[in-house]
Amino acid sequence: MTSSGHRDDGAALRPEDALRLRWLTAPEDADGAEVLRRALQQAVAALGGLGGLAHLSGEEADSLYLAAVHGVPAEIARRWETVDKTSDLAPSAAADRRNIVWSTSWPGDDSGEEAAGLGVLSVPLVADGISIGALSVLTCTPPEPERREFLLRLGGVVGDRLPTARRWISGTTPWWQEPLRPRMMREMRVGAWSWDLASGLLDYDHVIEDLVAMTDLDADRWDRHIATWMEQIHPDDRPGVDRAIERSFTDGTPYAVEYRVVNSGGRIGWVELRANFETNTSGEKVRMVGTAMDVTARRSRESWLVSLLELHPDPHYVVDASNRVAWANRAASAAAEAAGISLIGRPVPDTMAGLMNRARATSGTAVTMMVDIPQLTQGGSGAREVRAVEVEGYVAAQVADVAPGGS
């Protein structure tokens, strides 16, 4: 047995298989994602498969999450992003039984044409005695016993390699306790971090170092204390961040924020954080763990898009869940001002409330109606077409003059 709990019976390997296993141990500084990607490449090649999937899980998680993909189209990979540990799918069964599993079952009630004739061969990934996931190969036919045995041995090497593959700044956090992200196959720079409540110290991976570099902090010398990091947050955003932390701590809701960090030179960057608090065996919250990424580029694009809507000649509104106006462009604001109306925070007219509700009921699909709302225009007919669509909890509405001679 290896330290990962897999069999190592000393059976002779094909020369190419022995080389595949050796390649998985180098370079020594490869992180966990790189180890998984390389393992999938070798596994698919060795079994003559069509593609490969690697799933991982935290110790307490009830699902396996897709952590790496090789040779699998995105539309198929998306179906495997989250796998219930109690399902009969091959990755779940392999992780649960700690043995190799072949299955033709696919996620969902309808496997679709792309899954016709395909099976999944999965082996468990066991690190330091803990089942942490599964490595799978998609094939058209069940592999021969000798190929199955090789995949089992490859999984054992991966399980032995992973505990030392990924090092956090402090070197104290086991990598499989990091918050795991689905869709790691995307080329996204998402970092993982944790905040120890007792000491106030932050622990994080190498991706977070790039976020630290956006501030005046020296990545090698700063004290890694939460208070020091909070001082880097833009003053206008700090109250909202404090409230989000308090809310998550108090009622257990996920922590989800976007805020600005600024350095002494005035450079502003945007970061997005998602996290949850973890508890000890007594139920006391002991640390917050989560992910972070640089969203400066996206925020810049959003600002550009907002500026386009700001200058659009038709009135545009963003309505919140209580049917109150949360944002309005220049045309809408000018019309409201001319009518003596204070727009932001104002409930939408009763004639439009039903449209807002219909938009929420058909999220992502635009709905329209004709209304007579002269108070929202500067002169002309009151007949207007309102086009509304729900986006992430808000409803965006455009009011267009469709009367003869209207704009």
UniProtKB/TrEMBL annotation:
Its EC number is 2.7.13.3. It holds the Pfam family PAS_3. One of its GO terms (molecular function) is protein histidine kinase activity. Residues 255-307 form the PAC domain. It catalyses: ATP + protein L-histidine = ADP + protein N-phospho-L-histidine. It is an enzyme of class 2 (transferase). Keywords: Kinase, Phosphoprotein, Transferase. This is histidine kinase.
